Amino acid sequence: MSESRDYLEMSFRSIQCFSNDGKLDADEFGKIVDIALRDGVLDANEMRVLHRIVRHLTPAEMTPELLARFDELKRHYKLE
Q: What is d(CA 19, CA 11) in angstroms, rounded to the nearest whole number?
């Protein structure tokens, strides 16, 4: 079985999201997460991309909806 390249699509999608209005909302984040989870596995490359995305968010961009989505993901996959 070959290695998933979903992380590349996730990276590209995040660039599109940030470039359209400079922000990432919960819906856009959810779509990126959906790419990662469509094969049922959240691999190390996908996690790396998700962490990189979250690190680029300012505190003002961390809306309650976005925080809730990320917290849900962390709990479900037991992430740091």
A: 12
Q: Between the CA of residue 62 and those of 24, 45, 67, what are the distances in Å? A: 9, 23, 6
Q: Which residue has the tokens 């856009």?
A: 28
Cα–Cα distance, 18 to 2 (Å, whole number): 30
Q: In whole angstroms, what is the distance from residue 6 CA to residue 44 CA?
A: 11
Give residue limits of the domains in the chain.
Answer: 6-77
Q: What is the pLDDT of residues 34-64, one digit of tens each?
A: 999 999 888 889 989 988 988 888 888 888 9
- The answer for 64, left when phi > 0, alpha when psi is -120 to 50, beta otherwise, is alpha
pTM to 2 decimals?
Answer: 0.82
Please provide the DSSP assignment of 32-58 as one string. HHHHHHTTS---HHHHHHHHHHHHT--
